[in-house]
Write a structure and sequence with these properties.
By secondary structure, this protein is α+β, with helices and mostly antiparallel strands. It has 3 helices and 2 strands, in the order αββαα.
């Protein structure tokens, strides 16, 4: 499996759409309804079996995504709980 993302891949697009819908297109850190990106809770590069699992994704606005990037391990518990609550 490739380490590079193919943003045009239909499987990746479906993963992204499921996460955004579940999170109501709202940043899960600041709760703003900005244009969100989907962030992998467990990193894409190290969790290949979770790459397309919506439970491993969370919607974030660009500023919050920038804040989280590089510090993913600090947010795993926080985002996992957010995902659990959003699935109800």
């Amino acid at each position: 499996m490739s380490k590079r993302r193919d943003y045009s891949d239909p499987v990746y697009k479906e993963f992204r759409l499921k996460v955004l819908k579940r999170d109501k297109y709202t940043c899960q850190m600041c709760n703003k309804k900005k244009k969100c990106v989907v962030h992998h809770i467990m990193k894409w590069s190290t969790a290949s079996t979770l790459r397309f699992d919506p439970d491993n994704g969370v919607a974030l606005c660009r500023p919050c995504h920038k804040q989280v990037t590089g510090h993913e391990s600090h947010y795993v518990k926080y985002f996992t709980e957010k995902v659990r609550r959003n699935k109800k």
